[in-house]
DNA sequence: CGAAGAATTGAGTCCTATCAAATGCCGTGG
DNA sequence: CCACGGCATTTGATAGGACTCAATTCTTCG
């Protein structure tokens, strides 16, 4: 893997055991057998990205794909005048490299310290050709992402600021829950600006809406997150 | 194929020749050999849907997948209170059935008269298992859809009404162009309400924006479509 | 020709954006 | 330990773009 980012710390030793990988069962790798995992380890390059560094940028040739193993990544597009839309947050277990052809269609920044399992495009292609069940798994991931994207279109196009924020918090709770941290306290490592750019709002509106929900006793704002004080009422608002 | 829709006219004869299919090369079927196409013909069910009829509804068990061969379909989600978001328009060559698990995640209506090539889920699954290159093709389609969805998120979250409409018109021009109808006159078989629900606007705003663009001499409004009088200026606005 | 639906136009309002200022939060260094 | 500087966040005041409600005009089609 030729790492594109100056911030990228490539570990040129073999990836530490895939078998022991904490996110394996939640990732695309869940479709692989023990033998295949060993094969994978030989091809994978562990990479770490410090908080606020860039994994890759929109338009850059897409040399690698990544499996996020820890940390959180923001995926975003920008217009020439600077307007930014975050198209998703990648959590541990998520795969980066579905929606790109030769060049990346969006940029990706590490929000906190991120560890990822990288594969060069050639290695990735070879792997796909050799392992149809891996392709099936990738396709499952792609269709799942597509479903999420459609849900997000509904949110962006038709929901109010308060609904947007509530849906976002419930979605994050569910996503953290799926990777082993179910709790009414939802970690929010991203900034208010990130949340705004994900929900199609301004930072001020996000802040005001947080304040309003806190006054309502719907949520409790805690350092780097929120506690959901009334998930049922929130679910009612989110109900699709 | 058990057709779910009362409006659906299933043709229980074999599909008329896939080889002669006008949209084959633009569809998922482009990945198949002549032999495989013959196999496909045996499994496919031609179906027609009159204008304004429903192909399937959100939440309904997904028994079939479809290849659109003619006409245009709107794909949309609705909230309990009636707010609607169109997540896409399916044109000839497009495949319906990527983003669903057991149930359809969105509804689909024929806008004008639609012809489709239907496959039952079991037949579809069997086909995927037997033909890895078909799966690759489907995966290509899925990632392409994902890229479009991300572009749409940018549009819905960060663009103004005028930009939304301009981007929409250019996108439709390009899509019609790809299936063999390149022209500065862009057919718009869908209603203003459909366009509004696709762009996250109201019908009034869409109408006003059309009028404004026409006054600017940027477009010329014609029956069931528009003529782009200044594609360059439009492209400048759309530039991402 | 007339009815019904679709689209346009008009007037006024509201939600969210914008501009601006104050407050809070940390990490640094005296 | 605490003052300071820089940044993120919150809060306030105002403005504006899109929405809402309402009426008119245009199409389509029996």
Radius of gyration of chain A: 18 Å
Mean pLDDT of chain A: 93
Sheet of most strands of chain A:
5 strands, antiparallel
Q: Which sequence of SSEs, written as H and E, runs from N to C of chain A? A: EHEEEEEEEEHHHEHHEEH
* Through-space gap between termini of chain A: 43 Å
Q: How would you describe the shape of chain A?
A: globular
Low-confidence stretches of chain A: 11-15
Most extensive chain-chain interface: A-B, 39 and 39 residues
What is the structural class of chain A?
alpha+beta
Strand content of chain A: 15-25%
The quaternary organization reads as: homodimer
Sequence of strands across the biggest β-sheet of chain A: 1-2-9-4-7
Our count of helices of chain A gives 7
Helix content bin of chain A? 25-40%
Number of strands of chain A: 12
Keywords, please?
globular, 7 helices, DNA-binding, five-stranded antiparallel sheet, homodimer, 12 strands, four-stranded antiparallel sheet, alpha+beta
Overview of this protein structure:
The structure is a homodimer of 240-residue chains. In chain A, 39% of the residues lie in helices and 24% in strands. With 240 residues, the first copy, chain A, is of the alpha+beta class. In chain A, the strands form 3 sheets. In chain A, strands 1-2-9-4-7 form a 5-stranded antiparallel sheet. In chain A, a hairpin with a 5-residue loop joins β5 and β6. In chain A, α2 crosses α3 and α4 crosses α7. The longest helix of chain A is centred in the middle third of the chain and has 27 residues. Chain A is globular and about 55 Å long. About 2% of the residues of chain A have low confidence. At the A-B interface, β6 and α3 of A face β6 and α3 of B. Chain B binds a DNA duplex (30 and 30 nucleotides) through α6.
């Amino acid at each position: 893997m030729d790492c594109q980012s100056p911030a990228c710390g490539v570990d040129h030793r073999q990836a530490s055991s895939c078998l022991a990988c904490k996110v394996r069962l939640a990732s695309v790798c869940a479709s692989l057998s023990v033998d295949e995992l060993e094969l994978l380890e030989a091809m994978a390059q562990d990479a770490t990205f410090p908080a606020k560094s860039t994994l890759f940028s929109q338009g850059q040739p897409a040399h690698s794909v990544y499996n996020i193993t820890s940390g959180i990544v923001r995926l975003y597009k920008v217009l020439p005048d600077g307007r930014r839309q975050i198209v998703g947050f990648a959590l541990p277990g998520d795969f980066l490299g579905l929606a790109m052809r030769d060049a990346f269609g969006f940029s990706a920044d590490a929000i906190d310290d991120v560890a990822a399992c990288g594969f060069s495009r050639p290695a990735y292609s070879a792997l796909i050709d050799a392992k149809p069940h891996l392709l099936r798994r990738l396709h499952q991931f792609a269709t799942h992402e597509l479903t999420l994207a459609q849900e997000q279109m509904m949110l962006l196009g038709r929901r109010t600021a308060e609904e947007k924020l509530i849906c976002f918090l419930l979605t994050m709770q569910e996503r953290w829950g799926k990777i082993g941290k179910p709790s009414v306290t939802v970690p929010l490592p991203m900034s208010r600006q990130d949340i705004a750019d994900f929900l199609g709002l301004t930072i001020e509106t996000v802040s005001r809406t947080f304040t309003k929900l806190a006054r309502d006793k719907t949520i409790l704002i805690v350092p780097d997150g929120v506690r959901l004080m009334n998930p049922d009422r929130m679910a009612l608002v989110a109900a699709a």
